[in-house]
Amino acid sequence: MFSQRIIQTMPAFRRAPSFKSAVLGGKVIPLVEFSRGDFVVKTVRSKRDLRQVQSLRYDVFHREYKQKKFPFGLDLDRFDAWSDHLVIMDQKTGCFVGTYRLLLEDRAPYFYSETEFDMSPLKALSGKKLELSRACIHKDYRNGVVIGLLWRGLVQYVQASGADYLFGMSSFKSTDPAGIARAYVQLRADKAIDETLPCLPIGNYKIPEFHEFVAIESAKGVQSPEIIPALLKSYLRAGAKVIGEPALDEDFKCADFLTILDMKNLGKAYERKFKLC
Prior knowledge:
Elements: H1 2-9, E1 14-15, E2 21-24, E3 27-30, E4 33-36, E5 39-43, H2 47-65, E6 84-90, E7 95-104, H3 120-123, E8 129-137, H4 145-161, E9 165-172, H5 177-189, E10 193-194, H6 210-220, H7 230-238, E11 241-243, E12 247-249, E13 254-262, H8 268-274
Parallel strand pairs: 8-9, 10-11
Antiparallel strand pairs: 1-2, 2-3, 4-5, 5-6, 6-7, 7-8, 9-13, 11-13, 12-13
Helix pairs in contact: 5-6
């Protein structure tokens, strides 16, 4: 039932003369496609490809993280139809092994992150904004190669779209307020938090008495750099900052740190590493 509904609501794709853009619903959008070794990096351009993306996300987010027992399913929501989907395909199997969902601000009435955060301070920034969400990699491919290729594809997409800011939610796999506060304190010690953009959690996503937990963890004076998730670390190394307090996602049993990268602050090492000629 879900797959039939998503097929009916997906807009038709129409190729434009340039490989870097296409027309979708009257809007020019960037396209990505290149090969590296055994892998193809591309933005999906068909309903069949989108279903494979949703199947990969189901395997990671629902079967692996939430321990659901159904062997097959799709992870989908309304934002899929508004977004572009960057994927890594293993040419040996034809299967997608990594994906990012990319949503430009002019493509949807609101962002996915707005389901958890008050995004008013971020949305008030001057410049084009690109939201990253639903990032995942198949468990057999988490060796650094696929995340590097996702970064390469993302940089090409950003260059083609002209985005000034990248942002999204970075997950911390715990619902323990003390542990979440410990991670927040470490980020603050690392000067990884931008206090000028106070995007705060809304409703049930707020962590009760979070400031008290932060005060307790701060008083301990203990450094815990290993507590920061690897993906969030990679964003910070690229020049990103965490903004506001984390949100508590009880459904996925994690905390979400809202993270933003001003492309002007992209680290030179990352720029050289992932720039495509």
